[in-house]
Design brief:
Length: 302
């Protein structure tokens, strides 16, 4: 999930529309195929969205009191307010004062795949209703959590990916029928023994590769939707995928630091899936209370 130039997208895609406006792109990351996050800031602008062809969740992070939909001048933005734009949405926006907002883009293909996997439904039968300045604490909390993360840090990328997938799941759930929601709320067991062994072996073999141990990648290993896999994994392991991967990375680092010949920290960090030696040191100290060097010295003297 490294930063890349804006991909070749239709000119109506909200990312492209905003890039042609006065809005400034502050952060951007691709979470998985067809799902992206972006943070924008804008002021003194007028923006038109016209049938973007994808779903968008917009969460206001700061400001927004001077932002309004031209067709609904009485509705004003504020921090924490959300908007949902559908593929066919058309809207005309006036931005009179500073605003910062997070966008979650979900392509039609990603939306269709999630609807099939979660709801076992025909994607065209499940569409969202557009929302303007709604109040959804779960979406707001997810956006705040995302803003606390470094999207370029491999370990925090896993956390960002997990939160992003939860937000997409919540969007899909808003399109579900009462019967579909009832089916999703039925208690699930954990992963089967064979499935658990396969997933954990995959994690151990790919700890160095954040993309390979992301929630979507592990769900594919289990042949489950991200939504169901996350629930079943937690039931089996007592923690989230992100927490488990971090535990295994730290465990690998501890084993290497306890060996007779300890590799250089930079080499060890990459082998364990940390972005750098300093990232390994920070994580080690945060979770174990000592630095890798201190741990290694203690092990040699034990």
């Amino acid at each position: 999930m490294t930063p890349t130039p804006l991909p070749e997208l239709p000119s109506s895609h909200l990312c492209q529309v905003l890039s042609r406006s006065k809005a400034r792109l502050q952060r951007r990351v691709r979470l998985s195929e067809g799902v992206e996050l972006a943070v924008w800031a804008n002021v003194d602008d007028e923006v038109r969205y016209c049938q973007p062809g994808h779903h968008t969740l917009s969460v206001y992070l700061a400001g927004g009191e001077g932002s309004q939909l031209k067709a609904r001048p009485e509705a004003m933005g504020a921090p924490g307010r959300i908007c949902i734009f559908t593929p066919e949405d058309e809207s005309h926006w006036l931005v009179r004062s500073p605003v910062q907002f997070l966008h979650l883009y979900v392509s039609d293909l990603a939306w269709a795949g999630r609807v099939v996997r979660m709801l076992d439904a025909e994607p065209r039968s499940r569409t969202l209703r557009a929302q303007i300045y709604g109040d959804d604490q779960a979406f707001h909390a997810g956006a705040r959590a995302l803003m606390q993360l470094d999207w370029q840090d491999p370990q925090q990328q896993l956390a960002a990916d997990a939160i992003g997938q939860q937000l997409v799941d919540r969007l899909v759930l808003q399109s579900a029928t009462p019967r579909q929601l009832q089916a999703l709320q039925r208690p699930l067991g954990g992963l089967s023994a064979a499935m658990r062994r396969r997933v954990l072996a995959h994690v151990e073999a790919h700890l160095h590769d954040s993309k390979a141990v992301s929630l979507p990648a592990l769900a594919r290993q289990a042949c489950l939707s991200e939504f169901h896999f996350a629930r079943m994994f937690r039931q089996s392991m007592g923690c989230t995928v992100h927490e488990w991967v971090l535990q295994q990375r730290l465990a690998r680092a501890r084993r290497a630091l306890s060996a007779r010949n300890v590799p250089p920290l930079a080499e060890l960090a990459l082998d364990c899936g940390f972005s750098s030696a300093s990232h390994l040191v920070r994580s080690f100290r945060a979770h174990l209370g000592v630095t890798p060097t201190q741990f290694s010295i203690f092990q040699r003297n034990a």
